[in-house]
Amino acid sequence: MVAILLLALFWWALTNVFGVPEYIFPSLSSVAAALWEALLSGRLLDDTRISIIRLLLGAVVGIVSGIALGFLVGLSRTARIAVEPLINAFSGIAGIAWIPLALAWFGTGLAMSTFVIWNGMFFVVFANTILGVSRVPPTYAQAIFTLGGDRREVLRSVILPGALPDILTGVRVGLAFAWRSLIAAELMGSPMGLGQWVNEAATYQRTDRILAGCLTIAVLGVLLEALMVSWIARRTVVRWGTVAVAEERKAR
Amino acid sequence: MIQLNERKPILQAINLRHEYEARGQKIVALQDVNLTINAGDFVTVVGPSGCGKSTLAKIFAGLGTPTSGEALYAGKPIKGASSERGMVFQELAVLPWRTVVGNIGHGLEIAGMPKAEREQRVAELVRLIGLEGFEKKYPSELSGGMRQRVAVARTWATRPPVILMDEPFAAVDAITRLTLQEELIRLARTTKQTVVFITHSVEEAVFLGDYIVAMSSRPGRVLEIVPVPDMGINRTWEQMIRDPRIEAIVSRVFELVRGRAVAPSTERQHA
Ligand SMILES: Nc1ncnc2c1ncn2[C@@H]1O[C@H](COP(=O)(O)OP(=O)(O)OP(=O)(O)O)[C@@H](O)[C@H]1O
Ligand SMILES: [Mg+2]
């Protein structure tokens, strides 16, 4: 909270005290005006809605496939030997580099953005899931076996909750990648969406609109992270005490 | 006293040997271990740190396969873990994401016991280990000793015929430990379960056991099996420490595990 206020103050000082011209760095008030105008015209809402749909679709595919494959590879030595080198090779070139190819393969529709977001997100979710699975103490699983549990029970009640802290970290980082991939995809050719909004503003050299778009993206990113990660974390890993929370550490 | 017809072997180790391979080095954890434990026995295993007590318990639990030799349960080779042989682990193994009652009732849940019955059984156990008021707490909100009591209750809940306990009271304070030990004896005697209790406290081994398996330091071997006179279900520490026979057994076991005993058998002394 304090950080946000400081940032706003710095911004205000930049344009009002140091006199940085509007066309280089627009003032807080003109960005607010641009936001308001876009909100009234309905353009911003339309673009936001489209971006969110694209992001959610790509993110769900990225998260589900990352966790599923992460479990498979984390639990089976054979699967690891088979897939890991391939995935390592591909993760190096993941992300924005694929956009031109994706455009050629899928055109500019939902399939393209989904692929690009999946590509930006999958590897970090996947790698963190493997890490999480490998960090579950083996005695937890052994204890469940001596209670009569089978492999499915161990997976459900030991591995999944045990790997959750790392999975959530993967999703958190992955969501940031997903946003970047989406905006890049929209900048490079998707019709509509927040990236396209920024792109159009750039063509008309409307720096106030560019910043308004960036601000919207930032706020959406924070909201989505809060909904998809922090909300879940508070009800699970934080409550269980399997991750240390900064606030709690301060209190001690 | 345990009735004669019940005294049939339930756990057996035959020429057991276990080796660990760590970074190219071979460590012999167990060697020539022969042991027969009868149904209903309360056995304590005592030996210096690193002598292979946990290794032996894990083999009996079915969590490890011996390098050579055989481990039998009810006359059949042990293959994999089963709910018939519960185990309390030396490392804390209660699940951090389950509450006290969630952990204690886990085995019953797996066994498919109806909810109402399960809750009743769990409540009984919570009372027994003195954790009333902590039912809905997560392990991270408990002390180390409380967590270990939850682990004991979790294993006890399903009433497995055999319970392997690997230093379960190591993290419990001395006063609570006394109560838990007395409680454990009473419980084991009334339910006639077989208990293999591992400890490195000689006094604890003598207090709890029908007989004591004294092990040598690495490679772990069974030095001697020391019987303890029957002190009855309601034995107390006060009663035990005043008994000269007990005193003699304690010093005998101490000599054994410290490697200073004059070997009564053909066992070779290991320096
Ligand atoms: N997973 C493992 N890998 C390699 N060596 C091991 C492993 N587990 C145990 N050992 C070795 O085997 C020996 C016996 O270990 P074990 O845990 O059975 O001893 P312990 O009698 O239970 O000791 P403590 O009283 O300290 O718990 C030790 O010397 C240890 O170094
Ligand atoms: Mg041990």
From TrEMBL, chain A:
InterPro entries assigned to the protein according to its UniProt record, in alphabetical order: MetI-like, MetI-like_sf
Cellular component terms (Gene Ontology): plasma membrane
Main location class: membrane
BP GO terms, sorted: transmembrane transport
Membrane topology annotation: Multi-pass membrane protein
Pfam families: BPD_transp_1
Record keywords: Cell membrane, Membrane, Plasmid, Transmembrane, Transmembrane helix, Transport
Membrane-spanning parts: 52-74, 86-106, 112-133, 210-233
Subcellular location: Cell membrane
Family: Belongs to the binding-protein-dependent transport system permease family.
Protein name: ABC transporter permease protein
Annotated organism of origin: Sinorhizobium americanum
UniProtKB/TrEMBL annotation, chain B:
Residue stretches making up the ABC transporter domain: 11-242
Matching InterPro entries: AAA+_ATPase, ABC_transporter-like_ATP-bd, ABC_transporter-like_CS, ABC_transporter_ATP-bind, P-loop_NTPase
An example Gene Ontology molecular-function term: ATP binding
Alphabetical list of CDD domains matching this protein: ABC_NrtD_SsuB_transporters (cd03293)
Pfam family, one: ABC_tran
The name this protein goes by in its record: Nitrate/sulfonate/bicarbonate ABC transporter ATPase
Species this protein is from: Sinorhizobium americanum
Keywords: ATP-binding, Nucleotide-binding, Plasmid, Transport
Family designation: Belongs to the ABC transporter superfamily.
Keyword Transport set for record: yes
Record's keyword annotation contains Transferase: no
Domain of life: Bacteria
